[in-house]
Prior knowledge:
This protein is of the alpha/beta class. The chain has a 16-stranded parallel sheet that branches. β3 (59-60) and β4 (63-64) form a beta hairpin. The longest helix is centred in the middle third of the chain and has 21 residues, at 263-283. The protein starts with 9 loop residues before the first strand and ends in a 21-residue tail after the last helix. Bound molecules: uridine-diphosphate-N-acetylglucosamine and calcium ion. The site of uridine-diphosphate-N-acetylglucosamine (UD1) has 29 residues, from β2, α4 and β11.
Amino acid sequence: MLHNNMRTIIISFNFFILLFTNTFAKGEGIVIHNNLQAIILAAGKSTRFNTGTSKLLAPLCGQAVVVYPARLFHELGVEVTVVTGHQKEDIESALNAQIESGIQYVHQAEQRGTGHALLCTKDMWNKEHIIIMNGDMPLVSPEIITKLYTMHIENNAAISFVIAPNDDPSFASYGRIVQDGSSIKIFEASEFRGLPIPQDYPVNAGVYLITKDFLVNYCNALQHNNAKNEFYITDLIGIANEADKNVCTLTASCDDIRGINTLQELVTAEQIKRTQLLNNFMKAGVRFMMPETNVIDLDVTIGRGTVIGAGVHLLGKTKIGEQCTIHPYTILDTATLEDNVTVHPHSVVSHSIIHAHAHIGPYAHLHLESDIGKHAYVGNFVEVKKSSLGVGTKAKHLTYLGDAIIGSRVNIGAGTIICNHDGKRKHTTTIKDNAYIGSNSTLIAPITIEENAYTAAGSTINKNVPASALAIGRALQVIKEGYAHKLRGTQPATPVTHTKPATKAPEDV
Ligand code: UD1
Ligand code: CA
């Protein structure tokens, strides 16, 4: 359908998505004028996700899906309005937890389609240009937004929107761009009504930059007489085209515009994001022994020269210094590791800090704000909960340290247990510098072991131990010679000399 006198201009921009640098990702150097506001559509029911929880709340590299578009615009300095409805409270609190200020919410009480979600925001339209984006798109880069904005302004467009080549069968549910001469329209997959969906048409990404004037004048043209009985935001393209307004398209890569409708699509998008994160770290000098086995969250940082083993999970706000080694199958969740730390295999560290040159594991568990000093050593099957260990302190085997303040160069013997809970409340244990806790000691909190003090192996210690003292708290050993013969009614081969039971505890520890 070609109309020679049509004023409609369809402008397509193809561009190669560059591997963006950190500077670009943070939005530095990008000029987005303050005549732009963003609307994120996040009220949908997530029917295809089928988990009972909105897809927008699903964590992707540790961050809820809906936070990605909100953070993208927030970091570009663009005012953000989010349309919420289904599981509204949870979605708003996920956003508020990540973005400190400035998100406005509009309620869509009934989910009547993406066009209807947009119409719900009418009272909020206050900038010259409005960018609308589906809330389920976590992979859109800042460059796409700035390119779209630049193209839109330069071409004086009424609507500019992002499209992508359609070379992946997983895009079957996407809207298709049907272009014929100067006519352009989006057909929703559901509108093909049983006909084969043309595979060679590009897909609609779900990002639209629209001038406020056009929206105000034409939004009422949206209808819901379609297969789903919904208002489709995508109909605005055909409406603009028929009204002879400028419509521009920007072509991005399929991977950058992936939306999430199903759990399979969530996995695909997360793999893409994770690969981007891992590649950026490799460029920054971090060695991953088997990167395909690592899990890494968005806000993790890792210093150069660090080596990450197979199956390591780096979660939350974990920060790892330079020249560290994290051996296989360790999980670090919001852990801070200074430089030159070694974490041996199968350890779990959460919400704790490990200072330089310390060794952790194998099979260690550190949690609840534990603080491990420089050159300290927390060995196998040791749990450290809400405790601090000073410089060079060692707890190498089979130990529980809970609610303890432990000084420097302390030696915690194998099997030491701190009894921090009296059945009702938790109490603190203080162990001062250079103390030596004998193996299998049981320290009943609250208790203080002063500097240079010793506890004897196998002791139950429930009174404070003065500096440089030895505390022994165990049953005295009794030897009953020949007892086995008495029990079995047999005779000893040689006469037995009976010794008196020890009356003094041995001095060893
Ligand atoms: C939409 C587009 C399709 C495009 C695809 C890209 C429409 C009609 N179709 O389809 O052309 O190829 O995105 O991923 O827009 N939402 C609301 N309120 C509603 C319905 C949806 O806020 O009443 C929100 C959803 O929470 C979601 C977003 O809008 O974040 C998009 O909705 P979704 O159902 O995922 O649209 P698609 O079918 O993927
Ligand atoms: Ca979608």
